[in-house]
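Appendix B, Record 12. Input sequence as logged:
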Amino acid sequence: MKPSSLEQPMAKEHGALSLGALAGSVGYHVAQAIVTTTANFERHIGTPLMLRKEEFSLLMLLVANGPLPPKRLAQTLTLSAPNLTLVLDRLQERGVLDRERNPSDGRSQYIVLTKAGQALARDAIAAAAPMEQELLERLSRAEHAMLIELLGKLAGRRLAD
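Logged structural output:
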């Protein structure tokens, strides 16, 4: 006869639950961190500046590197070409970026921030500072550096700087 669910040990009504196998699961802990960081992003950048995470990241890449070909952006953001096109179309409709022909090779394009895009990027950088500070309050400098390094390893990439 199969034991009823009431015959199994009862979970605590208050306090933390045992995570069981989840305690050692990297995926579980990354997913939990995503919930926290996504809410933080939405509060500081997403809602006030009407930016999605991939749009913010694209703006930050253009600020850091100048004009870039779409292929490089797609690779760095791990977006498929069709998904990158959707992101670029949304930002271009907002007047944030332009697609310009490569002067040395008229067949390829570069993605360039407009004046409005530069202003939005400055606002996003300013909004990101308190967002990051909220997260950094939970970590020492060494933990922060280690977390960035470890997440880069999990993502399968080497950090440039």
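The helical segments are 26-49, 53-65, 70-77, 81-93, 115-136, 141-155.
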